Amino acid sequence: MSVNIASNPFKLGFGLMRLPRLEDGQIDVPQVSQMVDKFIEAGGTYFDTAFAYQGSEEAARKALVERYPRESYTLATKLIAMGEGLDEETLKQEFYTSLERTGAGYFDYYLLHALQRSNYENYEKFHLWDFVKELKEKGLIKHYGFSFHGDPDLLVELLEKHPDAEFVQLQINYADWENPGVASRRNWEICKQYGKPVIVMEPVKGGILADPIDEVKAVFDKENNGLSYSSWAVRFVASKDNILAVLSGMSSLEQMEDNLSYMRDFKPLTEHEEEVIKAAQEALNGDKSIPCTSCRYCTKGCPMEIPIPDIFTVANRMKGSPHFRTVREYTIVTQDKGKASDCIQCGQCEAACPQQLPIIELLEKCREMEQ
Question: Does 291 have pLDDT greater than 60?
Fold first, then answer.
C-alpha cells in the first residue's frame, strides 16, 4: 500500500516550520496568508506542519483552513515521541490537539515524526503504529507514514516491520546525497525498492544551500542564468523519481515568489545542469582537511570497530554546517559502532593506512563532534 504520486503533480510543498514572525515572536499570519494565496494560485496543494512546530498548526488554521475549502488542499502534520517521561495517553493526545489547533477535521497525511535510533522504539512501546491505523479506519487521516533521520539499516528494519506505511519523509539534498551521516541517496533507493513514495525535507539543508560557501557559489555564478542558489537545490531533488513532494520551509513572500518562479512550471535538470550540480558537490566536499580516501583498510582490524573513514567524512563536511547537524550526522555514522573517544591507540589503523595519516591524533580532534 502506498500513496499515488500522480495525485500530486505540483511537486513543491509548503513547509510551515520556519514561518515569518513579528518582533514579539508571534507568527506573522497576514504575511503567511499572502504566501498561502500565492502558493494555491500557482497550483500548490501540499502543506506540512507538526505538533512540535511552535504556533504553526494555529497559523495553518488562520491562513489556510479558515480561508479555503477543505478539499482544495492537503494537510500533513506529525506526532513526535521524543524526550523523557513519555506516556501513551499524552502521546496519543497529540493527534487530537493537532486536530483542534488546525480545525482541519481530518489530516490527509499523518506522520510518526523524526524516527531515528534514539527514539524509534518509543513508537512501538506506546503502540503508535496501531494508533495511526485506527485513526485511518475512523477516517481521521487518509494516509500515514513516517519522517526519518537514521541509517539505511534502520530504514529497512522499519519498512520490513511496517509494510503498511504508505510513504516516507527523508532528508535529501545535493550536499547529503553521498554523506554517510545522512545517506540521502541510499535511503531514497531503499524507499524505491519498497515502493514507498518519498516526501523530501531539508532540500536546502535548513538554509545552508540557499547561501552556500563561496566555492559553491562560484560554481553556480559561472552559469550566469539569474537563478537563486536555492533553486538549484530544490530542482535537484524535484528531478528525482518517486518524489511525492519537495518541502520548502519558506519564511517570506520573497522566498515563496522565488520558489514559484521555477516550480510553477517545473522542468527537470538538464544533463548540463546535472554536471553543474556535480561540480557544486565537489566544491562543497573540496575541504580535505583530513585527506582520507575511504579505502577502509584501517577499519578491517580495528578492535573497537570505529568507522574511521565515515567519521572523517563528517568532520570534513563541518564547514558551513551548524554544530547540531554535525552532531546528528556523527551520531548516525557511529550508531552501534565505536566512537572517536573509544580509540585505544593500538596503532593498527595507522600501520594499515596507505595515506600514512596520523589517525590516532585525528580521532582525538573528532571527539568534539560527540554530544
Answer: yes
